[in-house]
Amino acid sequence: MKIHWATRLRGFLRHVSQRLTTVEFSEDNNYYETNTFVDKLKSKCIHFRIFDLLGFFQVIQIKNVDCNIYGSFNRFLSADKPYFIYLENPTALYHYSLDRIKYRLGKKRFKACLEDRNLRYIICMSKACANTFEKINMAVPDHVKLIIIYPLVPTNMWVNEQQIHQKCQNETLECLFCVQGIRFASKGGIETMRAVNRLYDAGVKIHLTVITKISDVNEEILEEIKSYPFITLYDFTFPYSELEQIYANTNILIQATSDESFGLTILEAMKGGCALIGSQMYAIPEMIRDGYNGYLLEPHYWFFDENNIPNPMVWNHRKKTIYSGKISESLVAAISEKLNLLSDRKKLETFCLNSYRMSMCEEFSEEGIVKKWNDVLNDFSNHAINS
Q1: Where do the DSSP E strands lie in the chain?
Q2: Rounded CA gap, 127 and 375, in Å?
Q3: What's the alpha-carbon Rg for the chain, to the nearest Å?
Q4: What pLDDT does 33 receive?
Q5: The predicted structure's pLDDT at residue 44
Q6: Which of 171, 188, 243, 359 has the greatest number of CB atoms lying within 10 Å of its CB?
Q7: What span, in angstroms and rounded, lies between the C-alpha atoms of 283 and 261?
Q8: 87 backbone dihedrals φ, ψ, rounded to 5°
Q9: Which residues are paired to 76 by β-bridges?
């Protein structure tokens, strides 16, 4: 079986393509980790109100490609062969615009795409995505299967239980904050720095590694980062193999975000045997069990509500909320409190080991995820034979 990805892909989907050895993937795929200037400009234009009224969303036209099936990330296709969608969030299908399928034209167009007989699977990245798809959008037709497969994050070859024991005995508590620069503030970067500063000023030996796209960071925030002696700042340019080493040497990943649909860095940090501090929002509680492998905190802003439905008061007013630059002192205090608890090396080691072991369970393991993908592809193959 040969698969052609019909869309640009997030870099983590390369891991899937590399490990499904029973199928062949087209070689002309364009993988990316951060968006270009043109991507950002297109994204800004596509959110104009007129497109909500017109019900416009991108449907990718594709045909006459030498393959058996198509794969798509976050987009419907108009295709001449069967296809699946790998989906981050139900609203990603229409550019995250909550009103895009609210009106008659958009609703009619969305229904037609969903009922296309070539669409066979909607594969959700999280339970939060799968459990809210029909609540946010509409009922899935009988011929489309809605399932969950977590992103495939490879086993971190730098990590084992003995290595975790050793890194938890280090004198300095190693923390990590890793995010695209344009979302540094909305993902809790400022609160994270100030929380670590509280422990540093209290005499705790603590260090924070910040990995971000420096050119996208606000100049004022950049100056604050550079003012702290306990921070090492890196640009977001590491190859994945080097990122794995950084995770392996990290004790605690901090992602107290208000702006998240999944949180891939959390899953990567689990593979690296890290304790975790994150927001109790959307898919994050699927990876962080409060008091077991990390701590869940109330976010500064609820981008999704407690039922994982987009919160329009934040979603549609981002400049006044997540992008306002306002600091949550309560979040600073909460992160600081949890970091202080994890400075206890026994607790730290327990949480790190629990993260590592969770990452090896069937739903997150390489073997389990590859099996689920192979089951999907075998179903495509059997359907083709029977038809």
Answers
A1: 2-5, 9-10, 24-25, 31-32, 59-62, 69-73, 76-79, 83-87, 119-124, 145-148, 173-178, 206-212, 231-235, 252-255, 275-279, 294-297
A2: 19
A3: 21
A4: 46
A5: 56
A6: 188
A7: 7
A8: -120, 130
A9: 59
Q: Tokens 């609703």 belong to which residue? A: 107
Q: Reduced to 3 states, what is the DSSP secondary structure of residue 66?
A: coil
Name the DSSP letter for residue 239.
Answer: -
What is the distance between the alpha carbons of residues 113 and 137, in angstroms, rounded to a whole number? 12
Which among 281, 280, 282, 283 has a CA at the least distance from the CA of 297? 280
Taking Cα atoms as reference points, which of 77, 55, 80, 50 lies closest to residue 65?
Answer: 80
**pLDDT on residue 155:** 93
Cα separation, 124 vs 332, in Å, equals: 32
pLDDT of residue 32: 42
**Sequence-separated (6 or more) residues with CB below 8 Å from residue 317:** none
Length of the chain in terms of residues written:
387
Sign for the pseudo-dihedral over CA of 302, 47, 132, 32: negative
Residues 6+ apart with CB under 8 A from 296: 278, 279, 280, 284, 285, 288, 290
Tokens for 136, please give them.
Answer: 């946010």
Single-letter amino acid, residue 346: K
What is the mean pLDDT for each group of 10 consecutive residues in the chain (387 residues)? 86 81 69 47 62 87 92 95 96 93 93 97 97 97 97 95 97 94 89 97 97 92 95 92 96 95 93 97 97 97 95 95 94 98 97 97 93 92 67
Distance, in Å, from the CA atom of 83 to the CA atom of 309, rounded to the nearest integer, reads: 27
| Structural tokens at position 308 | 């994982």
The residue to which tokens 């009106």 are assigned: 103
Distance of CA 63 to the CA centre of its chain: 30
Amino acid 104: pLDDT: 92
Cα separation, 305 vs 310, in Å, equals 6
Residue 143, helix vs strand vs coil = coil
Tokens at residue 364, please? 């997150």
Short-list 240, 262, 248, 265, CA closest to 352: 248
Residue 150's pLDDT is 97
